[in-house]
Records
---
Amino acid sequence: LAEELEWERQEIQRFREQEQLLVQKELEELQSMKQQILAQQEEERQAHLMMQKETYAQQQQQLEQIQKLQEQLRLQLEEQKFRQMYPDRDL
């Protein structure tokens, strides 16, 4: 009986060790998946950030063009006013 109990105890111990190894393996796989997902999210975040920077740069360029055009229009309007006020004068 003592031998049988010892054998069962050892069987239970082996089963627990196998279960522990399986759980450890699953945890490692999950950790690996988590790292891959985090890396992918970081890549996507970086790509999104680059797109935002490019969009911002384009908007800045457009704004500068608009401001230049506004300045040109302002100068043309001043010139027109001057010509209307002094039609006989050359600029």
---
Amino acid sequence: MEKVGSMCYITLNVMLGKASHSFRFHCNNETCEIDHYNSLTEGSFVFMHLPLTVEVLIISESSGQLNLSSVQHLHGLQSIELYNSDVKTVSMPTCYALSIVAIINVPLHSMSLSVNNALRKIIFKNTALTAIPYSVRQQSHLIDLHLTNSRLRTFRFDSLVNLTDLCGLDLSQNHLSTLIPDHTGRCCPQLKEVSLNRNRLVYFNFGLLATMKQLVSVLLLQNSLRSLSNEYPVQSADTQPVFASLTSIILTYNLLPVLNLTLFVDMKALIELHVNNNRLEHIEIKPGQVPSLKCLKVCGNALHTLNLIDLPELIEIHASGNQIRSEQDVHLANSNATICIADNPIELDMFSIFKLFFTSEMCSSRAK
């Protein structure tokens, strides 16, 4: 093997119990493929980075461990990815340049990771994790954290208090049914997007997110939500308005029977609200509560009326697939607003004065 310089990127692609083990690493803009290994001890596989003679222990099959913590000459390592392995425990090296860690399709139970000021993104996907590992929760400069397709059932927001630079949190496709608030008032002041899609939430309190003053988007698609609230578990010492930056909420594919816009009274910047494919029979609103709302999507519900007279900025409404029967059931504040209302039991010409758009194609393409 030719000398290619110091290692800066390594991808481990390991399938225990299979005949082949392949490793790829990237050094000084050159990619080296290794399709064989030296078995120095039973159940252990290593590859050699020659002529520097850097030995990296990849897998100890008997213990199900990946241990890079004692490996030298990895200080310039920038990214580590582990895919399709039977590893249950990972010990990461001290790499001061390490910025990305990805562990995908691995039955990971625990992970040891030194504090690293360069680390910006961690991805756990399809693992056996039931919580964010302690060593990950200490990475104060982390910007993006993804823990998806895993085994979270309960999540504590106070586990994030040390992640002061976190901007993106994705906990989609777990088994979450319980969310425990942060009573310190210090959780994720820089967080911009939180995704809780495809979990098992029946109830959600937006007050859990009140300490996240930079929050822009909340994604709650495809849970089993039957009720919402907005109660603050703790009063923050920060005088910045709550939800001052929140512009988008996605509640599509849940079980909500009522959309109570009074819950969003603190969300003065809210522009877009998606509540498609729920069980809505009624929308409750009072004047001045969501003054910036421009786009409302409530397709695939059971609404008989659409009284939106108290939403003066609303210019785009998607309400196809409801039970609206006559023009007297629709009230808009803005005469220039466009509304998509296909698949309702109404006479089309009764809505001409509202400049309604009835094309099913527009509804299906823009209601998502």
---
Amino acid sequence: MIYPVEKIDWIDNERKLAVAKLQKYLPKLFNNLRFTDQGLWSEFARAINCETTFPHAIDAVITPFQKLLVIQAIRPERLYSAIINFVINVLGIPSINPSPLDLSSIYKSESNENEPIMILISPGADPSQKFLLKELEELARKHISKAKFYQISMGQGQRQAALEAIRTCAASGGWVCLKNLHLGINDLAAIEKEFLSSKRDPSFRLWLTSESNEHLSPHLLQTSLKIVYEAPPGIKNNMKRIYAQWRQSELNFNAICLQSLFMLAWLHALLQERRMFIPQAWTKFYEFSNSDLRVAKKFVENVTKDDKTVDWELLCGLLKTVAYGGRIDNDFDMNVLVVYLKRYFNSSIIGMNGSEIAHNISLPFSSNIADYVNIINTNIPEEDNPALFGLPLNISTAYEMAETSKTIRQICSMQIVGTTEVTFDR
């Protein structure tokens, strides 16, 4: 059935050209959609998460991929989320985000002295790399010693230092970490030669970090244990990384202290993940780092670990002035930090059982760290809702549109040119 797209009143005018393309190039799909039935599509048109509210009558006659085409045409601001759901459902996986990188497990079960461990890091992921290297330092102290762990930042003039470190550690069973290998491309041949010619103690490990670079040695990549490190976004993943970093043996505190540490992890995740919504959420990018978190953790432990009345004003002042506020140079942004501190660090939240800090997320009153980890795993959603930050729901539109454009560009760059005709109507 052919009817003018202009007659479909419930679709925004700026989306009617995209809908007309559906009609022109995929007529069978278009006819199955019954766009002239406004009542059928009313919930889809109103819903924030439209990808989950397709009309049942339409859901039964189109494929999951065709749903993406409909969302791209009518509600492109939700296409990125729809693509994620599509991938999860098609692959049958719980999430597209990887589990937190566990260097200890990789060292014990996958590494050996004859295979370099190449960690590929996303460009610009400096805070993540610092966290990673800190974990590697702690792992080295546990399994060898600080004195036998050599770290060298590659760049001009570092070739000889790298070669000597490999030579020394291969013989003694130490570890070498050559950081930012992409900055020492000209040194790779010499490094490979030294590694291959060395007689390696079973305890020796060669750790390499690098951004992806087309000039990295293919042979080195082929013969290395390769790990891609890209910290997945979102409050849930952020808090998982924090608790993976905090050893359970170091969290043997009373319930109020553990509640306070959970709220600190929540606060740190909020501060970092708000950066997705610049300039509405923050006016600029602030480098809230793992160092800030360590300082804040010390303050929280010192103020709350004893069984006495907690001075919340003191704790909020320390977190504001020393731990986080020093990075903020804007009154609006400072007010955001102050509001968070007052909201989450007080006796009406901490010290109570079941205090709700967000929708469906309640704070347990427990001295068992597993109870807090369980809240992260089961109650915090995989996808951040702007309401978790205290932001309006429509603020995610710009972020979703940008991610959608980036994803489509990446898909197009992988397209294989061929002569086979493909139709989405089948």
---
Amino acid sequence: MSTREFEVTEVVGLSPDSSTRKVPGSRWSDYWSLTPLTQLTTRYSPNVQQIISLLTLDLDGSEWDILGGLLDSGVLKRFRQISFRLRIWFGEENENYRRFYSWFVRLERQGFHKLAFRHLQESARDIVFVSL
């Protein structure tokens, strides 16, 4: 059986739940279309048994809305590696650190293990998880 590999890069707004919606963009006449990750994975990989190699998320401050919804949806089990770029600000409330930690624990419970961590700037960190 042959496998087919291809790379798709798409810059999209992710919906924090299972609904498609529009949110205001940078100008009053612009809108971002937010798409559920389950819809994107089905578009590029309709076979639900197929594992997708890598998901890269630059959440740009929207971590609170997105990560919880992705973990609840179960869609992350379709990916071999997940790379997050997170923004953690100096002086961030302890509640926010606890929330990140609980998400990472939930990822581990779903079969992912932290592979790499990189501190990029004062506020940005890259974290890569791999499914074993």
